[in-house]
Amino acid sequence: MKLATRLLHAGRDRDPYTGASSVPIYQCSTFAQKDPEQRQPYDYSRSDNPTREALELAIADLEGGARGLAFASGMAATSTVLLLFKPGDHLIAGEDIYGGTYRVLTTIFKQWQLDVTFVDATDVEKIRAAIRPATRAIFVETPSNPLLKITDLAAVAQLAHEHNLLAITDNTFMTPVAQRPLELGFDIVVHSATKFISGHSDVVAGLAIARDATLGKQLKSLQNSFGAILGPQDAWLTLRGLKTLGVRFAAQQVTAERIARWLQSRAEVKQVFYPTLPGHPGRDIHVRQASGGGGAVVSFELAGGGAAAKALLKRVELMLPAVSLGGVESILSYPPMMSHAAMPRAERHARGINDGLVRLSVGLEDGDDLTADLAQALAPAG
Ligand SMILES: *Cc1c(COP(=O)(O)O)cnc(C)c1O
Fold first, then answer.
1. Is residue 74 in contact with ligand 1, taking CB distance under 6 Å?
2. Is there a smaller number of Cβ atoms within 10 Å at the N or the C end of the chain?
3. Per-chain mean pLDDT for the chain
4. Ligand 1 site, residue 171, Cβ cutoff 6 A
5. Of ligand 1's atoms, which has the minimum distance to the CA of residue 141?
6. pLDDT band at residue 229, thresholds of 50, 70 and 90?
7. Does ligand 1 have an atom closer than 6 angstroms to the CB of 96?
8. What are the extents of the domains in the chain?
9. Integer distance in angstroms from the first to the last C-alpha of the chain?
10. 196 alpha carbon to ligand 1 midpoint, in Å?
């Protein structure tokens, strides 16, 4: 079956007991045990819940993995995956991974003696150079946040396997509709399903998918032990979002590219960051490993610096000035004071996240209305 069909029918597309057209919200913590001596498929909702399981089966199918698991948030998914490692283990992570992942690695997991080296993941040789005897995994994200830098997924997977390391990636920005890292050799994919997968800015959820069954079993055991599971109501909302992910993401990518080009024509804009723009250094790699476009996030730096960026956020009328991304409504964020506020200014600037940088997550509005909103906010009349 093709992906567009699998978005609707992968896993369990109806209730096996009643035939209901959507899997019901099994809002229960426990299940009657008909015979204490016979194992049943469900006993307690932390371990297994039919609504969560429907989502887990669907995402495993879509990413092409042996097992999918749903968590209370993207950070719960990532943190549970990191529990695979032991004190003394070493990881290599891309220097522009999600801020929350950077924080959990440099605070909580650091206390547990998990050692991390952050490298420029656009250069596979820099990753190779960081490998030590204690290295166990490589964690990357492409396109990166907020500068949309590109990592060559197939090359990282190959490097990881040459050295017996796990290759892990956060696929939130592209979703399985446009990029499937397990097919390129990755071992684990994580998602903030809060973003494009649920897609309506109304749920916080996370997913992890393992390529092989052994790793899937290990992650399942960590999910059950640590307990940061997704509740049935939010699992249902995420499944509902998943059904329209294909059409939403396709439309959002097209509008995003249009807006990126429009921004390039504006004198107020110093630089536009978008993976499929001509001249983007990762363009060829991105086009090879992802389908349909450059994703639905565009970042741009204003010539007027921090003052201009803050003014833009205050003046937009249609766009939601907020953190987060991936919703049906366009969201305009200011990374220096939002997603990257925890990073010291000098560190931020060293990574190219300058004071004039804003990040736009393009929604489903008409592109003309979005550019009109940006135009009035960039150059207000009078
Ligand atoms: C938002 C986000 C996360 C964290 O997800 P939560 O659902 O907020 O915990 C992780 N990675 C990326 C790329 C994100 O955008």
1. yes
2. C
3. 96
4. no
5. 13
6. very high
7. no
8. 3-240, 245-381
9. 56
10. 11
Distance from the CA of 137 to the center of ligand 1, in angstroms?
20
> pTM higher than 0.85, yes or no?
yes
For domain 3-240, give the fold: Aspartate Aminotransferase; domain 2 (3.40.640)
Q: Which are the catalytic amino acids?
A: 46, 98, 170, 195
Q: Which residues of 185-202 are buried (b: 16+ CB within 10 A; e: fewer)?
A: bbbbbbbbbbbbbbbebe
Radius of gyration of the chain measured on its C-alpha atoms: 21
Domain 245-381, CATH: 3.90.1150.10
Pocket flag, ligand 1, residue 102 (CB < 6 Å): no
pLDDT at 16: 87
Q: Are strands 90-94 and 135-141 parallel, antiparallel or unpaired?
A: parallel
Mean pLDDT over 62-82 rounds to 98
Could you tell me the CA-to-CA distances from 93 to 159, 185, 244, 291, 364 in Å, in that order? 14, 17, 32, 25, 33
Name the residue among 92, 22, 36 with its Cα closest to residue 237.
22
**CA 32, 36, 37, 42 torsion-angle sign:** positive
Cα-to-centroid distance, 182 and ligand 1 (Å):
19
The answer, yes or no, to whether any atom of ligand 1 lies below 6 A from the CB of 100, is: yes
Cα–Cα distance, 28 to 69 (Å, whole number): 19
